[in-house]
Design brief:
Elements lengths: L5 H7 L1 H21 L9 E3 L1 E2 L5 E10 L2 E5 L4 E6 L6 E2 L4 E5 L2 H36 L5 H33 L2 E3 L4 E6 L6 E2 L4 E6 L4 E7 L1 H5 L7 E6 L4 E4 L2 E8 L6 E6 L12 E7 L11 E4 L4 E3 L2 E7 L5 E5 L1 E5 L5 E6 L6 E3 L2 H14 L1
Antiparallel strand pairs: 1-24, 2-18, 3-12, 3-17, 4-11, 5-7, 5-10, 6-9, 7-8, 9-11, 12-16, 13-14, 13-17, 15-16, 18-23, 19-20, 20-21, 22-23
Helix pairs in contact: 3-4
């Protein structure tokens, strides 16, 4: 059989080749007029410049508003521990018991001192009464009466001192049981059972998890950037990804002499769960809002930003049903992470695609048709 070459094959189907070319032209025209079949609708958003309040971010540390480090107030051996780190405790609950033997002995000695002082007072009172009787009958001089009265008053003072010593010893014996000053959690235990406690030695640290705050140190210059109005703040917790609006912001009226910074306390709302003292936080301070009509930066939704390697861009509507890629330069992210400031690349009156991937697919399809 004689082989058929490609030119011969093309010459044998001239009509079919014309039909294929015609169909291709009709399909291209349809795509140009109506877009590819099943094209998804791309959501868009109209952007504009807005006046933003000044924001200053600072690293902070979480701490409890109510926290107590309990220390021993009497010497003695630790004979019992009523709670450990991580335990929930109630106000008045026994946490540590110290051996009260030494304090009990001091109380007994003070009571013996009271008995001795009472006996001395009784003798001094009798001598004073006898001296007055003898002075009345002219058997004793006035100076001797004055001496008896002095001895009587000294005996009274010694009795008061002995009673005060007993009260002191009884008070010290009451320190044998260390109780919780608040309802909360035990953050740390600093002593073991059987160790010797001395006055001033730390035993336990207790805090109330229902009232927490973030503490940040700011330079006065950064505080001045926020203006003179009332401060607002939001606390970002990177560990959990949460952003919480502050209940109150307090600027302490003194600067640290070493760092020359001012401490700012930012209170969290009551009852915020899963916030541990000592953990890291980031506080965003918001100053007073800018005046209406004031020029401000361009802010776009974070969903409209397309990142490909070193390219940061967004797809803007071209006014003809398509999209065009615009390279942009971003500034700071707004609290919450849902919007971002644009420094350059946009005018501020464009319509952006909220789905940059789908907008890019449509832009490439339209360019292929053209």
């Amino acid at each position: 059989m004689k082989p058929i070459t490609l030119p011969a094959l093309a010459r044998s189907f001239p009509a079919r080749s014309s039909l294929v070319r015609a169909a291709g032209l009709l399909l291209a025209a349809a795509l140009a007029a109506h877009g590819p079949p099943g094209r998804a609708e791309v959501p868009t958003v109209r952007i504009e410049s807005r006046a933003l309040a000044p924001v200053v971010a600072a690293e902070a540390t979480i701490e409890a508003v109510r926290q107590s480090t309990l220390a021993a107030q009497m010497p003695g051996r630790i004979i019992a521990l009523g709670a450990d780190a991580g335990d929930r405790v109630g106000k008045g609950q026994m946490l540590v018991r110290i051996d009260p033997a030494e304090a009990s002995a001091a109380v007994a000695a003070a009571e013996a001192g009271i008995a001795q002082a009472q006996t001395a007072l009784a003798n001094a009172r009798a001598e004073y009464a006898r001296a007055r009787s003898l002075v009345e009958r002219k058997f004793l001089s006035q100076s001797a009466l004055d001496g008896a009265r002095t001895q009587f008053e000294a005996a009274e003072a010694q009795l008061r001192a002995a009673r005060a010593l007993r009260e002191q010893a009884a008070t010290v014996r009451g320190y044998a049981e260390v109780v919780s000053p608040l309802d909360g959690l035990v953050a740390a235990r600093h002593i073991e059972a059987g160790e010797m406690a001395q006055p001033g030695r730390n035993l336990l640290t207790v805090y109330d998890p229902a009232q927490m705050r973030a503490v940040a140190d700011l330079a006065p210059q950064r505080l001045a950037e926020l203006g003179a109005g009332p401060l607002r703040a939001s606390i970002e917790l990177p560990a959990s990804g949460r952003v919480i609006e502050a209940a109150a912001v307090t600027v302490l009226p003194a600067a640290d002499a070493r760092t020359h910074t001012v401490r700012v306390r930012v209170d969290l709302p009551a009852g915020v769960a899963d916030v541990l003292p000592g953990s890291f936080a980031r506080v965003h301070f918001h100053g007073a809002a800018a005046a209406a009509g004031a020029a401000g930066p361009i802010v776009i939704p974070a969903a409209a930003v397309l990142r490909r390697g070193e390219l940061t861009a967004a797809y803007a509507a071209d006014g003809q049903g398509g999209f065009v890629l615009r390279q942009i330069r971003l500034g700071r992210a707004l609290p919450g992470g849902e919007a971002v400031e644009v420094l350059s690349g946009l005018r501020g009156d464009e319509t952006l695609a909220l789905d940059p991937v789908q907008a890019g697919i449509q832009a490439r399809a339209a360019a292929a048709v053209r």
